[in-house]
Fold this sequence. Notes:
Layout: H1 2-23, H2 25-31, H3 34-51, H4 55-64, H5 72-81, E1 86-89, E2 95-100, E3 106-111, E4 116-120, E5 126-130, E6 137-142, E7 148-153, E8 157-162, E9 167-173, E10 177-184, E11 190-199, E12 203-212, E13 218-224, E14 229-234, E15 240-245, E16 250-254, E17 262-264, E18 275-280, E19 286-291, E20 295-300, E21 305-311, E22 321-326, E23 332-337, E24 342-346, E25 352-356, E26 363-368, E27 374-379, E28 383-388, H6 389-392, E29 398-400, E30 405-410, E31 416-421, E32 425-430, E33 436-441, E34 447-452, E35 458-463, E36 467-472, E37 478-484, E38 494-495, E39 501-505, E40 510-515, E41 521-526, E42 532-537, E43 544-548, E44 552-557, E45 562-568, E46 574-578, E47 584-589, E48 593-598, E49 604-609, E50 615-620, E51 627-631, E52 635-640, E53 645-651, E54 656-661, E55 667-672, E56 676-681, H7 685-691
Antiparallel strand pairs: 1-28, 2-3, 3-4, 4-5, 6-7, 7-8, 8-9, 10-11, 11-12, 12-13, 14-15, 15-16, 16-17, 18-19, 19-20, 20-21, 22-23, 23-24, 24-25, 26-27, 27-28, 29-56, 30-31, 31-32, 32-33, 34-35, 35-36, 36-37, 38-39, 39-40, 40-41, 42-43, 43-44, 44-45, 46-47, 47-48, 48-49, 50-51, 51-52, 52-53, ...
Amino acid sequence: MRRAHATIIASLAALLGMQVLAATEQAGERAGDAAYRLYLASVAAAEATLRLHETAAAVKWLDAAPDAYRGWEWRYLRARADESVAVVAAHEGAVNAVDVSRDGAWIATASTDRSAKIWNARSGALVHTLAGHTAPVWSARFSPDGLRLATSSSDGTVRLWNVKEGVQLQAMSGVGRGITVAAWRPDGREVASCSWDYTRERGVWGVVKVWDARTGAPVRSLEHGVKPIVAASYSPDGRVFAAGTWDDDVALWDTVAWERPATLVPPRTPPYKAVQGLAFSPDGRWLAVGAKDGTLRIWDVAARALVHTLVGQAEGRAQWVNAAAFLQGTTTVAAGSSDLTIRLWDAASGSQQAVLHGHRAPVLALAATADGTHLLSGDADGALRTWDLRVADPSRTTWAAGEQMYDLAFTRDGRLAASTGWTGIVRVWDVATGREVSSWTGHRESGVRVAFSPDGRSLATTGNDGRIVVWDVPSGRQLAQLDEIPGRQITGLAFHPDGSLVAAPAAAGTVKVWELPSGSLRQTLDFGSRDIAHVAFTPDGRALVASGRDGVASLWDWAHGAELRRFEHGRGTLTASVHPSGQLLALGSTDRTISVWHLATGARQRTLAGHADAVNAVAFSPDGVRLASAGGDSTLLVWDHQRGEPLLTVPSDTAVYATAWSPDGTRLGMVPLNRTVVMLDAVSARERMTKR
């Protein structure tokens, strides 16, 4: 079924690519470039397949994109398609199990290729290949002290190995048939194995056996259910032993008495809920159970109660959840799925925290380091991947503001960002981590716009209270109030490139320019009856663009108070961005379109149509190659403004009000109206790790 599903998806992806290719044929003919048409099709197909979590297909489409056209959108999708920090071809067969020693020194893997392997966790080097099993190896688990490794196989044995020397210490036979898993008691004295047995008269039943880890002698033998037992774990305190079955349930034994177990049984409704993997939370309170119906269930162990049924795999498609692992010191649980993803969930709230891409085959095994900073995962193609959760932390890219934000700006060095929002709040963020550095109430009503000075030491904000204020960044102390116009919303703001001036719309029909740090008025530009919404200095600082609510923008020699030319967009309230070269002007309008102009001549270069609602903000990338636009249609678009083509659509669950590029052009920030700031990163996790 999984192979058939993959074939269907691959066919759909190919069909999508052909459809996109056909749809862009006309635009490509205008460009006169077949390779460019291929690029458009490849990026569109990669984005669509990645949204379906078909990572392997997305990578193939990205690899097919011609090198000459690869821009920010390609790098962004490529970074999303592999968020792991390391990968190694660990086995010739599927990686059925992965574990990491408690001290973080060793990694163990087990495979259908009949071997288990021990790896140096720090260098990634292979240390030992453990040969001896004569059938697929299904589990590999380190003893609590990290000195021994237990492996279990379909050959009916559990074997114990010396980790440092890679030699076999014990072999326990008669474990069962087929899939076999092993688990250490937390004190390291015993190893439990789970499997199944069969006779023609009786059929199938689940088998649990407990062995003395020192001598290999059997301690007890138990039975449960009428299906194989394929997952097992002791609770952290060793008082409960959990065994998950293909009969959909989990048996819980009290390890003092080992009497008839309690069972955790999900609702008896289709589809098939056979257990694939399970994990106890670090405090033993919860048990996470992954199943073939595509769910991760969180159970309260003491109450034997189902707390959450978490569904996210492939956005509703039934894909097996094969493995689970809790992160130490948190309520976060990771789930590995046949949909090629690893998903992070908050077991307490049931909310999904992140979806990690990188595997190109079903994820079969997971393990977390003892410090909770890394995940190890294995897949059906034999790959072992490492994930740094400090880099993959969802709070690094989705910043929870607590209230609605309306604007975003970066410092010139890209280390800090500032946002303004509801209730007049001003927040300063560490861009690399997504952590809030400081915040203060800057306005009596909502804050609207924010801009950093070139040196990053101060920032200016505007608000619905009609105030224009300059602040000291480290302390949040007010340095100057430049203006106050009661009852007026100030929607535009710009620092002069040398940081000596601030410009903003003031009373109706005017734009004012103030000197810093004195706050004295330098110039007033008179627009008559026109109402100005947005302002932007040209890169050389000699001219100022002012865009109005009447569909018209003006270029001014601000120092002499002279209007140089006008740009007649048509209608709507306009927002503006000046190209880094100073040669082009982009105007986004509430009429849903964007116009691009030559500043020197005033000629319209082209009109970009792609949004289905108002364009709330536009921003040229620092290299000038791309244009980003934020829309009321709940999308952020990235454009090839030279050819007039939308290259990437980033969906949101609500309107996007603002957007801004980091100065190095690697990050693109967006401000959706959902109390977050979202940072889209075009640098891969592996590259970020190298730079740290």
